[in-house]
Amino acid sequence: MRRAVLSQALKSLARRAQAASRPSQSQSQIQSRALFQRPALRVFSTAAPQASEEDAAASVSVPVQAEEEQNEDEDDIGRKLKPREVVEQLNKYIVGQADAKRAVAIALRNRWRRQKISDELRQEVSPKNILMIGPTGCGKTEIARRLAKLSEAPFVKVEATKFTEVGFHGRDVDQIIRDLVENAINMVKKSRKERLRKQVQHLVESRILDVLTGANVTERSRATFERLLHAGELEDRIIEIDVPAAKNPSGQPISFVGGEGKGISMEVIGRAFGEKKTERKRMTIAESRGVFEEMEMENAIDMTDVVREAIQETEENGIVFIDEIDKICSSGDYRRSSDPSSEGVQRDLLPLIEGSVISTKHGNVNTDHILFVGSGAFHSSKPSDLLAELQGRLPIRVELKGLTEEDLHRILTEPVTNLIKQQVELIKTEGVTLSFTDDAVREIARVAAEINQTVENIGARRLHTVVEKVVEDISFDSSEMTPGSTVTITKEFVLERVGKLMKKTDLSKFIL
User: Fold this and answer.
1) How far, in Å, CA of 398 to CA of 395, rounded?
2) Which InterPro entries does this one have (predicted)?
């Protein structure tokens, strides 16, 4: 009874908090994003005497958030997206390519600036989409990966070659927006769970005590179990609990005409008719905490409200990164192609990037203000080979430079997660200290640059090949070395290990 009352109070609190934090139409959209704060719960100890529903409701307090704190949150969001700070963050992981970093930093900041202007003008300001052009291995995809972490917004990275023209078997480009919405839902749901995590601890303990003590128990016995539980003396005890039945991994949704993502699963049908499948499992109390915590948060979160906020986040702050966009265009001599992954996909992308309404199973999504970033190497084609209409929808063009020997050396030493540090830490797990001399690192960069020039230029990816070849024997033997031993890699050692690679490079010049 007590657990049901507390659970109902938590649900009521969640609804009231959301209603109180929902801004009016005249407020900027960024407020609705920043002001959602789940208030903290204050629940009386489960060892207290039985309380009525009124007492349980009274035990839940909603601290009033000051206006200054709200403004501080807004300013904090803007501070994180300042262009100079975005570039500084990217510099920790990516060497060079200053123009590309500045372009994406400005684009991110403009998303925040748009939220601060009047409602009437906000609807007219559209994002300036970006086209990044550069050889393979120069950092285009890495910029996308880091951008996803910095943006704090719905983000999806797709490969242009995975889509086909509408009417052909395969994924159509509308699936990009459906994936973006799913990512937004997961992001919003995760955020709310983090805010509720501390607040459901009392409910979790109450449910564990219910399982331990049963229904007919005296307050003294319950208080004893509660004291032992808080002391951590019951964590290894085995209990049986009812948990939601595991989802069937092979249960595919029933699809309708219109492509992937427009189906309905049997799980949804079961929920519609009130079906709740559970199964009984045995686990320790320590393991049950996470299960109970997840169940309580699922009960407290209103998925209808989560979906509504996720769609709003997608429309206002969504970012789509389309990689390998050069692979869906043909050179001028072969413009008329029957490939369903070529020009047809470009034509399908036009309304998506320009702005249209995409139907998803969660509702309609307007793409007018979603930022699109395209990237490609354009080895066998030129950016001008893209459809003229698509070029016009990607107005910001950024060219990334190929990597020199000095750039490769910087990649090996400057990023916080560089390849040299990765190898040192991996070998360190075996109790062996691995070190590289500066001459050895420079020799690795020189060899990688030379192979790129003589065989095929794959940019920074060549460093993986060379470094792995250098440390191959050490990685194999390190588990059998004496703990505490030290291995130093010198320039001579590098030349000895990569000599075969260099010979193969010389021979490849004479092979047709």
Assistant:
1) 10
2) AAA+_ATPase, ATP-dep_Clp_protease_ClpX, ATPase_AAA_core, Clp_ATPase_C, HslU, P-loop_NTPase
- Asked if 104 contacts 149 with a C-beta cutoff of 8 angstroms, the reply is no
Which segment of 109-118, 201-210, 302-311, 334-343 scores lowest on mean pLDDT? 334-343
Distance CA(466)–CA(370), nearest Å, equals 40
| Predicted local distance difference test score (pLDDT) of residue 42 | 33
Contacts of 279 (CB under 8 A, 6+ apart): 242, 243, 244, 245, 246
Phi, psi dihedrals of residue 396, rounded to the nearest 5°? -90, 110
Q: How many domains does the chain contain in total?
A: 1
**C-alpha distances out from residue 35 to 137, 286, 471, Å:** 41, 34, 51
What percent of the chain is modeled with pLDDT above 70? 73
pTM of the model: 0.72
Q: Is residue 99 part of a domain?
A: no
Collapsing DSSP to helix, strand or coil, 244 comes out as: strand
Contact (Cβ atoms closer than 8 angstroms) between residue 22 and residue 32: yes
d(CA 67, CA 159) in angstroms, rounded, equals: 44
Range(s) of the domain holding residue 409: 405-508
Q: In whole angstroms, what is the distance from residue 21 CA to residue 12 CA?
A: 14
pLDDT at position 102 is 93
- C-alpha 498/C-alpha 488 separation (Å) is 16
CA 123 to chain centre: 27
- Planar angle of CA 133, 134, 137, nearest 5 degrees: 135
- At 503, the pLDDT band (50, 70, 90 cuts) reads low
- Reference 13, options 199, 140, 184, 139; nearest CA is 199
Distance, CA of 15 to CA of 119 (rounded, Å): 27
CA-to-CA separations, 310 to 90, 94, 153, 351, in angstroms, rounded:
27, 30, 10, 22
pLDDT of res. 162: 84
Residue that has been written with the tokens 């109902």 in this structure: 8
323 is a domain residue: no
Instruction: Answer yes or no: is 488 within a domain.
Output: yes
Closest to 399 in 3D by CA, of 106, 131, 133: 133
Residue 76 confidence (pLDDT) above 50: no
Decide if pLDDT at 398 tops 70.
yes
Which of helix, strand or coil describes residue 194?
A: helix
Residue showing tokens 């702050």: 317
- What's the CA gap between 263 and 208, in Å, rounded? 38
Domain of 456, CATH number, reads 1.10.8.60
* Confidence grade of residue 12 (pLDDT, cut at 50, 70, 90): low
Residue 452 placed within a domain: yes
